[in-house]
Amino acid sequence: MLVEAGHFALALALGLSLIQFIVPLWGARTNDPVLMGVAPASALAVLACIGFAFLALTTAYITSDFSVLNVVENSHSTKPLIYKISGVWGNHEGSMLLWVLILALFGAVVAVSKNTVPVRLQANTLAVQAAITVAFLLFILIASNPFTRITPVGEGQDLNPLLQDPGLAIHPPLLYIGYVGFSITFAFACAALIDGRIDAVWARIVRPWTLGAWSFLTLGIAMGSYWAYYELGWGGWWFWDPVENASLMPWLAGTALLHSTVVMEKRDALKVWTILLAILTFSLSLLGTFLVRSGVLTSVHSFAVDPARGSFILGILVAFIGGSFALFAWRAPLLRQGGLFAPVSREGALVVNNLFLATACATVFIGTLYPLALEVLTGEKISVGAPFFNLTFLPLIIPLLLLLPFGQTLAWKRGNFLGTAQRLYAAMGLAIVATLALLAVTAGGPVVAPLGIGLGTFLILGSLNEIVTRSWSKGTRLAVAWRKAAGLPRSAWGTAIAHAGVGVTVIGIAATAWGVEALGTMKVGDRLKAGSYEIRLERLVPRVEANYREDVALLMVSHNGRELGNLETMKRLYVTRNMPTTEAGIMTVGLGQVYASLGEIQSDGSIGLRLYYKPLVLLIWLGALVMAAGGALSLTDRRLRIGAPARAKVPPSSVPAE
Amino acid sequence: MRFVFALIGVLLVASPVFAVQPDEVLKDPALEQRARDISSGLRCLVCQNQSIDDSDATLAKDLRLLVRERLSAGDTDDQVRGFLVQRYGEFVLLKPTFGTHTLLLWLTPALVLVLGGLGAYAALRRRPQSAGALDDAEQEALAAVLKRDPDAP
Questions:
Q1: Separation CA A394–CA A367 (nearest Å)
Q2: In Å, how far is A69's CA from the nearest CA of chain B?
Q3: To which CATH superfamily is domain B2-92 assigned?
Q4: pTM > 0.80: yes or no
């Protein structure tokens, strides 16, 4: 019964979303407060309905209700509870349900922020948000129904073994909050276009949403990267796979958007561009959804590919991207440009930032889609892989990173490049010294690593330099400087920390050049050495668990003759799906990792083994955590919490930019 | 999520053993390094966007052995790649060649950067710049105002 109720709740949510789409839009047009007031109420009701549907499906999973097709296909009664729950979104239908749940959740948050968002803007925004909800609810109800009943069967077919990992519980929700978070900025952008008015108040309202979505997307991508790193067993962490690219594109566009809204909020400039970016960012999120679920990529992922679903999502894609661009072309000329600035200024630097990020995004876009287009148009088949992206993407990102500390230090309106450079002398000097020292110490080794670490150091020092120069000058007592630093706006700290996080990630990536690997065929007692780390094969043991059995290689890790401890790497066979997996054995030593991966087991009892030592590798993901923490800190800025409500009482058009 | 599904795809095709096997490695380390470099730029034809250096598929292993065979026979890196392209088409190269059919692919980054830069520059130029230093008449007016009201900030 609960399953049918869940299905019905989705249908109800569709009806309510239609109301939320049409009525407030009409209300905003006719300036009718009662009609506009329908928006928040219906947004909350939609959330309640979709939330109920989601709970119904989750209950079916927890109770292993094998009369529901979706549960049969993706669950098993012996599976641990956490994987029963995360299995809800470990498949196409369930993940679409999570998608609309987050969509509705964000709509509801906009609905309850009555005091911060002007009524008209709120009504239009919720209407646009409802239009997206309608499209995806239709898609679920028509082409991806998770509530389909079948004649009950005794046992489920189990979740794909690779997904039976804590990663599945964390990675998709983070990523979806990121993707769908950008739907709100999209809705705000469309609302502004419908209204034909946009100002600094708009930017102030939209900025926290962008920050939040961006922080979650950063975490989601980093989490996915780390999951791939430990699950796949060859130690790579980024593969330039089309599916990864699908998440990188909205991240790049979102990063650009984050920076252009700063300019808009502070200086009332770059309005048209910001609106365009907001539309582009969510369009790229939709494109990612399409690429992954339609089967146009030569990809072999486990979503059952159904041409009907592909065309449906393509329809949604065309309608929203086409619709929003048409709206943009029609209404954007109405938007008046605001604040002026000289080319050398903080605004100018942020324009350069946007230029490079947009180009990087276009590069990933063309690299991902070109092979598809070429094959359709000429029948020729080419591959675009890592070497292409390394050759085109890196030359765009490195200059951007080199300029970052300068941009962060430049003054608004009109800056002085030489003066800015002078303020960064200390950071530049220390970074150069660090690079030269590393080059001397590791002479003969890869040159890339010291150079990259130098760049990372410059980024970290350059970002923190801003905090130091704003709170300390020669002669200031340390206690006073500390008080001043603590009193700086949280957004200043957030910016510095997020930028330092970029530096941390850069150092982690650069240090991969120092990684060493070794492979060998080993018998019990044999040793294998990678760099200064050595392993000894202690023994091989078979093991049987509830839903898989495995062969475990027990290794002893030692560093320069000192024993550090045991490491296990396994080859598993998941019984229900008869699917083998490899579980890498990872030992964290400081910020580096010893990584062992078990290969073929020969008939004579010897095993193939691949061993890596990856110095500083954890910094890649720690940097992303630091970036997201910077974003979160920025979100707690006083201005974003209490700045807007007091101003909403006066007509928005009369509010000065700063 | 998407990420993971791609990964699954990779693993469905390739049984999860590691790629280069100990018995494939060439004796000469310089030659082996060249083989690794070439391999990492060649696509495993039955996999999803994976190089033969990373892949565990049987075909990838055959190609790795083939690369090593050609190198041992004295081929240059380009000759080895050319041989594989002749056999399997350009699809085998993870870095597409530069030609008329890939012109747009290779030039897009530069085009977007240059055109975007020009566009931004033009937009900046089109808008009136904020006033520069005051001219003489304005200086006089300013001095007059300041004289009249010495307490003004």
A1: 14
A2: 20
A3: Cytochrome C biogenesis protein (1.10.8.640)
A4: yes
